Amino acid sequence: MATRTTSRSKGKNTPTFECSECGWQTVKWVGRCPECQSWGTVQEKGQVTARTTAASNLAAPAQAIGDVDASVAEFRATGIGELDRVLGGGLVPGAVILLAGEPGVGKSTLLLQVASAVAKAHTDHPVLYLTGEESAAQVKKRAERIEAMSDSLYLAAESDLGQALGQIEQISPQLTIMDSVQTLSSAEVDGAAGGVTQIREVTASMIEAAKRRNMATILVGHVTKDGNIAGPRMLEHLVDVVCQFEGDRHSRLRLLRAVKNRYGPTDDVGCFDLNEGGLTSLADPSGLFVSALTDRVPGTCITITLEGRRPLTAEVQALVAESPASQPRRAVSGLDSPRVSMLLAVLQRRARLATLFKSETYVATVGGVKITEPAADLSIALAVASAALEKPLPNRFVAFGEVGLAGEVRPVPGLQRRLQEAQRLGFTHAIVPRGAEKSDIPEGMRVREIGSLPEAMGLLLDGGPAQASQN
């Protein structure tokens, strides 16, 4: 008896399924998306369409690279210094920027100030602010509070993509801000606003309009509870620049980072101060992260941390107190808790600080700054040791270096920039890892190189504050 076989023809259409959360696609239905681990989000999207044929008439024929006019892609300053710093010089005509951040961090306030500054600088070219989350009256009240009014700034409360594109065609702005991309939807596409299909359509339409009109565009994006940008990952690939706006609700400091930038670097950070009058650029924010104490107090140490290419001064404070409990408490704020626990273990074993076994230890930064780089290890260890031994560290002194489990102090990148920033702020003494070049040490700065944590403690806590020598 012959075996019956079935085969699919080469051109036969097969059903396609897509996850409504992340956009992952498959040829068969599954209950749980393997990409985002969401249940019940994989839905059928119809049949595979035919292949697109080549166009017979080209709207924009290819040019030789030497004939392309590059002047249209030059940076234009926004008037917000810290934003221009992160973007690499300003806005590029035709660029599409995605700005993401947690709710209440100040995204809308920043962009309203940007819209006003650009409108005031170029009164002959209007700026369009599209809001899908607030009414035009609400946006105007905020603009009056932060003094962001301008006759060349236009507001429109739109949640329909077709209406938003119509506003752009009518006003012909030099800059369009859409707050936010998750609130707009197209009537010609299935799905609710904020879904994968709608976000893809909204983003693609705005990018097409921006490139065709040489119009700078800023899209506001929501974030998930994990801090990732909501919507399909493709959203970040489509835009030219992706920026993250960060900040603690209980702190006035706000940080702007570029995680993707086709026109500039991604290793810089912009600092802002959030107050009643809006956001103020902080060209020199180091004073926010250092306490105002003038007397030497045990348990404090200054370090220089690098946020991208930008050196920032930060102060680490530690408090060590006897505990009646069998398991002493250890609390950390502004630092990586597992790394602080590791440094406490190194201090106990390598530096012979046995009192830490039965003492409560509290370690925190000043001003709400968050430090994650290993270069702050040495300052954390010295602050804890100073608090445990009740011996203050010297004035006008900084320390930075990575501490290993064997107690060794390893070199850190950007040594010259750290020392130059310390000297600019009036610090005269520094402890750095061994191996520094002579050219890295600024003239007049007394720098001492060390190779281990016990060596640093013996130099500062036992030998006195002013025994650092010029290398």
Automatic annotation (TrEMBL):
Motif range (RadA KNRFG motif): 260-264
Record-level GO BP terms: recombinational repair
Pfam families reported in the protein's UniProt record: AAA_25 (PF13481), ChlI (PF13541), Zn_ribbon_LapB (PF18073)
PROSITE patterns: RECA_2
Domain RecA family profile: 72-223
Gene Ontology annotations for the cellular component aspect, listed alphabetically: cytosol
Keywords assigned by UniProt, alphabetized: ATP-binding, DNA damage, DNA repair, DNA-binding, Hydrolase, Metal-binding, Nucleotide-binding, Stress response, Zinc, Zinc-finger
Superkingdom in the source lineage: Bacteria
Molecular function per GO: ATP binding; ATP-dependent DNA damage sensor activity; damaged DNA binding; hydrolase activity; zinc ion binding
Region Lon-protease-like, residue ranges: 360-471
Residue numbers binding ATP: G101, E102, P103, G104, V105, G106, K107, S108
Assigned protein family: Belongs to the RecA family. RadA subfamily.
Record function comment: Plays a role in repairing double-strand DNA breaks, probably involving stabilizing or processing branched DNA or blocked replication forks.
UniProt remark on domains: The middle region has homology to RecA with ATPase motifs including the RadA KNRFG motif, while the C-terminus is homologous to Lon protease.
Protein's recorded name: DNA repair protein RadA
Organism: Nesterenkonia xinjiangensis
